[in-house]
Design brief:
Layout (H helix, E strand, L loop, with lengths): L5 H11 L6 E7 L7 H11 L6 E7 L4 H6 L7 E5 L3 E7 L6 H14 L6 H8 L5 E7 L6 H14 L3 E7 L4 H6 L7 E4 L3 E4 L4 H11 L7
Parallel strand pairs: 1-2, 4-6, 5-6
Antiparallel strand pairs: 1-3, 3-4, 5-7, 7-8
Length: 218
């Protein structure tokens, strides 16, 4: 059964046609203990061939644990979006609904190799002295979540100190509960500092700065 309807698939092909540089989309799944991995694999397979700049790789978390560890993947389904290097951008879940546009935006950004941040924002970002691990909780029915994901991804593209995991709060309900996710989008930085909603880049860099101190280990 097709995951993407033909109109959506056609629109996705039009968007992906503008990808400037090669992008590798790696999907980690597993045969057991993963309720939606089959749908994720179907989605990845339907994306295959939509752009000559996009390559698709399917990996089994259980059988390829070393590769999963290399990309810091610890749950499935997990989409890893990489270019000529790993920007630390992950999507956990099946990016359907509004979140399909998030996946396409992540591919576009990695293909562009440029986050498009303002010079003053870049200057602040370059001043980071500690890593910032961003977990962005979203749902498939949230119309503003893709905007929050796009903003966060722009920072991950621009700085090796910033990594981003976009997480479907409904699919990973236990993890969402750990961080008291009551509304989305909710951004958690270094497992301690958090805020809700879509914010402009000038506030986002301030939130990253506040949260990039000590990494809280659960």
């Amino acid at each position: 059964m097709a995951v993407l309807g033909e109109p959506v698939k056609k629109k996705a092909a039009e968007i992906l046609a503008g990808v400037a540089n090669p992008v590798r989309l790696m999907l980690f799944s597993q045969e057991s203990e993963c309720q939606f991995c089959r749908e994720a694999v179907g989605l990845a397979q339907e994306l295959n061939g939509l752009s000559d700049k996009l390559s698709i790789e399917l990996h089994d978390l259980g059988k390829e644990s070393e590769k999963a560890a290399q990309y810091h993947v610890d749950k499935t389904p997990a989409f890893v979006v990489t270019g000529e290097k790993d920007y630390g951008i992950r999507y956990y879940g099946v990016p359907a609904g509004f979140e399909f546009s998030t996946l396409l935006s992540l591919i576009e950004l990695v293909g562009a190799r440029n986050g498009g941040l303002r010079p003053e924002t870049k200057t602040k970002l370059e001043g980071l002295t500690s890593p910032a691990d961003i977990q962005l909780f979203v749902t498939l029915t949230c119309p503003v979540c893709p905007m929050a994901a796009l903003t966060a991804a722009r920072f991950a593209i621009e700085s090796d100190k910033v990594s981003l995991s976009v997480i479907d709060a409904s699919e990973f309900a236990q993890l969402a509960g750990l961080y008291n996710v009551m509304a989305v989008p909710r951004t958690v930085i270094n497992r301690g500092h958090s805020f809700e909603g879509v914010v402009p880049e000038e506030r986002f860099i301030d939130e990253i700065t506040r949260g990039s101190g000590n990494l809280i280990v659960p």
